[in-house]
Amino acid sequence: MSRKCEFDLPPEEGMEVDRQPEDSTRSAFDEGCVQLEDVKDMRLEAEAVVSDVLFAVSHMHVSQALNNALDVAYINVETREGDRYCLELTEAGLRVVAYAFDRVDESLSSQYHETVYSLLDSISPGYREAFGNALLQRLERLKQNGQ
Questions:
Q1: Is residue 39 left, alpha or beta, with left meaning phi > 0 and alpha meaning psi from -120 to 50?
Q2: Which pLDDT score, from 0 to 100, does residue 5 have?
């Protein structure tokens, strides 16, 4: 008898699925269910996003005022131009949810970006310039180290 968890997807038509006979010492998670470590913690992802691009913006931090959770986190960013945004980070990507820190404007409908680089590139010429300069500096260091 095989157990099925709510995360199991049926195999596609014509696809064979190899399953081992059930071992009484296995937990339900051993049967192909999604384990907790497979789920991204958006709070940790948000911290990584901030540390990755902090050099190219005026100010950026994970919101402490908004409710961050496993599936959503909010990031406040001030661009080099002085514009403030609140960003929402989910599995779908990043999007602007307000034009102020620690706010979510439900009436704002903005597109999702797969990466923070794409989002910042679309809203901040200063980010593009800082990112380009950092890239040039890195290439210059690689060139010097290679000679």
A1: beta
A2: 39
